[in-house]
Amino acid sequence: MAVTVTAVILTLIGLALFGFGSQLVMLGGSFYYALSGLAFVLTAVLLFKRSKFALHVYAVLILATLVWAIWEVGFDWWQLGPRGGVIILIGLWLLTPWIKKPLGFASPTGTVYGPNAWPLALSVLIAIIVAGYSMTQDPHNQSGELPQEKLVSAPVYGGDVPDNEWHQYGRTPYGQRYSPLTQITVDNVSQLKEVWRYQTGDVKLPDDVGETTYQVTPLKVGGLLYICTPHNWAIAIDAATGKEKWKYDPNVGLNPDRQHQTCRGVSYYAEPSAAPGTACAQRVYLPTSDARLIALDAQTGQVCTSFADQGVLHLEQGMQYNPAGYYYSTSPPVIVAGKIIIGGAVNDNYSTQEQSGVIRAFDVNTGALIWNWDSGNPTKTEPLGPGETYTTNSPNSWSVFSYDEDLGLVYIPLGNQVPDQLGMGRSESVEKYSSSIVALDINTGKDRWVRQTVHHDLWDMDVPAQPVLLDITKQDGTTVPALVGPTKQGDIYVLDRRTGEPLLAVTEEPAPGGAIPEDFSAPTQPTSLLTFKPAPLQEKNMWGVSMFDQLACRISFHQLNYKGRYTPPSLTGTLVYPGNFGTFNWGSVAIDPERQVMFGMPTYLAFTSRLVPRDQIPPKGQDEKGSEQGLNRNDGAPYGVFMGPFLGPLKIPCQAPPWGYVAGADLRTGDIAYKRKNGTVYDMTPLPLPFKIGVPGIGGPIITKGGVAFLGAAVDNYLRAYDLTTGKQLWDARLPAGGQATPMTYALDDGKQYVVMVAGGHGSVGTKPGDYVIAYSLP
What we know:
The protein is built from 8 helices and 42 strands. It has 779 residues and is an alpha+beta fold.
């Protein structure tokens, strides 16, 4: 009975492998699956006949699979396992007495002889030995060390921020995410313990959009921490105890048309001329998801009614179109030279009639408009006159700015014009400024230089990260004011921040063609000398937990349009790699200004996009909620777009891991010193398995002068510490929810150093939601 059932199962497996394997062959893929299907069927036929040769045929299949697998991927366990796992398990089953005994024969004397199973047993043993050996190998880690020489004794951090505080999103106006504190070091970081935990009470609601996320980095000024929450509550917390001092709820409500429900941070400002103790002498500015900017007293949380309209600045002013929920600021504005400078997130791919991506500077005290820079109309920076409006759908900046007050420049990471995947009809200005880093004059708003990172962007490759500023020491000992700009496509631009000219070479490389007839694609695309761009995907990079879903992913790979990075969108479906999450995103990178090195988290996750003709897009449902994944409607355009991660039938990535690393690079030479797999599948699978395969993440790192880097971000719920020099993990702490935010560190007056992490989850990556703020310090 067992033999018959086994033969039936092997027949079904063989027919499926042969059928779908033949489809793969016709698409130009591997012959292996079709041939292995025939081997399964032949084994089944021999089992039906009770022939001992069934075991021999299967032994050949095991050895042939092993040779093929090693030829494709070498000794990479996470790729060998799916190729051979099912086959080895079946091989072990065929060696059991229930299968072997019926395949034997009886002599004329009545003696029963079992079949010769040694060929099968030996092939299984060889495969197991190879599997065991591959588990000891790590072909993806790049080991090395960053230079430890301190090139400057007194680095410029930017701004007047005490060493023990954290005044802006990246600690200072330079956005370095670097703290001069030294109490926590590589030698003692393993002793960190949780010392307090605060819960905001702002939790994800059933009617929230899917992209409800908690991405805030707290500020520390004096004895208080300042945060915001996904629903835009502003909260002040005692930095020593974690006790709440005040809370302000702006009542933003819920709107299903908001693509994101998040807040990355608030902005702090102290009025130099105000008398101590005066109401609103110190202020916190809160951006909200209903397009307001609210000024609050930093000590009490009361609204500062002298600002704008009774304390509230309405950001929708000057927009030709103003659909509710389509525009808001998700990132904290910057405050410099008496001005508060703010951009806004414009919903991706909703409509051709959305708000402008204008950047505006308002008087920090009164809220009066001082200048506006609209990338669709960049020469008109004086405030709009009566009846004038900004350019509809011009490229926007939803991320964080940095600035150099001495140079009089604010640095803007710009996104793309909506719709992202359709480039027809873009103006000359849009083509120039889309997906670029722009330096604006702080006083006038005039642009002083622009560095575009993608030409004619058809892939949603916004510049997502705050530009990081530092002074770089050249080989001849001279110093150059520099800017480091991480991008979604993996390039990291190192530029002279005075002019935008490259300090590390930028070259133009040929790019794939093949855009839809109404559109075009740029013939070349820029690439920086310092780049984390991935190698192009191949069929052998397709993955799954078994040979079956791996085969499905191989078929999908060949069905998609893919010619490498920058393959244009198509009606049949395009593979976008790096995908929309980007190699780097809003978490940016952290910089050590003394050693002039960087630490970051490159992520590799392919997406797909498919253009959908207008007549094939169904009417909008009343219960639809905003999302960047699934069908993006592009109302008013000839095509919508269906997009999302490149997943297999089991909803796991089709591309093989690793999907995430930590990495260190020398900013003076562009050399990547190390790349180490980061994160486990502990929270990605039904069982809490601690397998370190390198998982995706979204969030950012920080560095301390003690030589330690801290990073949450990965889709397993941990905060980790690393040796900046080598990238080796030194410590971790289990978080109660997803840690898709950027940590920060500060010290109290007694010198005690704390590390703080927000754990609230991220809707896009499906991590556990929460409302936690957690502080750690040494015993």
